[in-house]
Amino acid sequence: METQVKEHYSSETLLSRIEEALDKAGKDRENLSIKDIAPMDQMHSCGIPATLNLLEKAKIPANAGLLDIGCGLGGSCRAVAQNRDCKVTGLDLSESLIEAAKVLTKYTKLDKSISYKTGSVLDLPFEAKQFDVVLCQHILVNIKDTKRAFSECLRVLAQKGKLIIHEITRGPGPDLVMPVPWADRAEISCIKPWDTYTTMLSDLGFVREYEKDQTEMATNWWQKIHENKQKNQGKVFPITPALVFGNNADEFSRTMLENFSKKSVCLMEAVYMKL
Ligand SMILES: C[S@@+](CC[C@H](N)C(=O)[O-])C[C@H]1O[C@@H](n2cnc3c(N)ncnc32)[C@H](O)[C@@H]1O
């Protein structure tokens, strides 16, 4: 499974294509803002505000050590480092995403607060009790062995550490329409009903502090993205999710709007504490 997931997100030319796109868009690489690259590096529903609002709910301590598992291009790592008092570590399976994440972090001058590592959430390359916070954002969508992923999160969290979850889950609706950002075919989509996750978390001893179903917010968000796409038909935006996902990205607003509207998928957010 990991090999197929890696292939889905990886490309040897990713960094050079991103740099070309930045030039084409007229962005100054040495003075890049996180807003400049948000259309490409926020690889989850509802963008930067969703991440920051959720972090607020977790009431994390000052100078917290935060691990972002499945950090992708590092979009949330940079948003968190810029807006919260945290030392951030990003981890991802894909070497090409991590290579690009490091360079984008340098361009946005956030490299003093963020470090990156390649690796799997199923075997985290970190010591036990190393982090105050683990951010789990749209990664479980690609994880078959969710229990092992949660056990690894538990291991690397310090006592009273927080697991912050922002995930797409399987809803009661019909089969998903594809492609979606995390999968171009059903075999690599691992989404499960929310109850499956909450049962695993409580079996492992995590305590729930906060939970909210954000499906309506996500449906409205994708509706807006879809409307903007139709309004801007024919216009060229160089900084786009297509840099990571290729031509499939063109379909995402249609498929995600349909999947959310028919409740084939839901968006759930939660904060859990390690006792
Ligand atoms: C949909 S993207 C979300 C990226 C990022 N969390 C965000 O919200 O912008 C899922 C990410 O999880 C990573 N991933 C999938 N399986 C993984 C695993 N076993 N270990 C680490 N990362 C993984 C993928 O490479 C990809 O970057």
Label this structure with key terms.
275 residues, alpha/beta, seven-stranded mixed β-sheet, 41% helix, binds S-adenosylmethionine
Report what the structure shows:
By secondary structure, this protein is α/β, with parallel strands linked by helices. The protein has eleven helices and seven strands. Strands 3-2-1-4-5-7-6 form a seven-stranded mixed sheet, with helices on both faces. Helix 3 (34-41) runs antiparallel to helix 5. It starts with a helix and ends with a strand. It binds S-adenosylmethionine.
Topology record:
Blueprint: H1 2-9, H2 14-24, H3 34-41, H4 47-58, E1 64-69, H5 75-83, E2 86-92, H6 95-107, E3 114-118, E4 131-137, H7 146-156, E5 157-170, H8 194-203, E6 206-213, H9 215-231, H10 242-245, H11 252-261, E7 265-274
Parallel strand pairs: 1-2, 1-4, 2-3, 4-5
Antiparallel strand pairs: 5-7, 6-7
Helix pairs in contact: 3-5, 4-5, 9-11
Bound molecules: S-adenosylmethionine.
S-adenosylmethionine binds at residues 2, 5, 9, 42-44, 69-72, 75-76, 91-94, 97, 120-122, 137-139, 142-143, 181-182.
